[in-house]
Amino acid sequence: MLVVTEGCGWTQVRGGRVEQICAGDVAWVDPGGFHWHGATPTSAMTHVAISETAEGESVQWLQKVTDAEYRLTAEEKP
């Protein structure tokens, strides 16, 4: 779960649309879901990330989104 505390950013669940998230928004990813999140090219974003543990398993951090992947995402936004 992400709780955006200031600014705006983007998040995307694998295979889904890029969604804008702003201060006051809460973004949820189902357990086992893959996602990324971050600021936009024109806006900073701060957030609180809350992760749960189930059956002894907690969040698994994956690779960072590359600058090239991020630029592609930025081009898709209106």
Structure write-up:
A hairpin with a 5-residue loop joins strand 1 and strand 2 (19-22). With 78 residues, the chain is mainly β. 13% of the residues lie in helices and 36% in strands. The protein contains one helix and five strands. It has a single domain (2-76), classed as Sandwich (Jelly Rolls). It starts with a strand and ends with a helix.
Features:
1 helix, 78 residues, Jelly Rolls, single chain, 5 strands, five-stranded antiparallel sheet, mainly beta, 13% helix
* Helicity range: 10-25%
Mean pLDDT: 82
Q: Which word captures the global form?
A: globular
Going by CATH, the architecture would be Sandwich
What do we call the CATH topology? Jelly Rolls
- Gyration radius (Cα, Å) is 13 Å
Task: Tally the helices.
Answer: 1
What is the N-to-C succession of helices and strands?
EEEEEH
Q: First CA to last CA: what distance? A: 25 Å
Query: CATH first level: which class?
Result: Mainly Beta
Overall structural class, as computed from helix and strand content, comes to mainly beta
Largest sheet: 5 strands, antiparallel
Corresponding CATH superfamily: Jelly Rolls
What is the total domain count?
1
- The amount of beta strand, in percent, is 35-45%
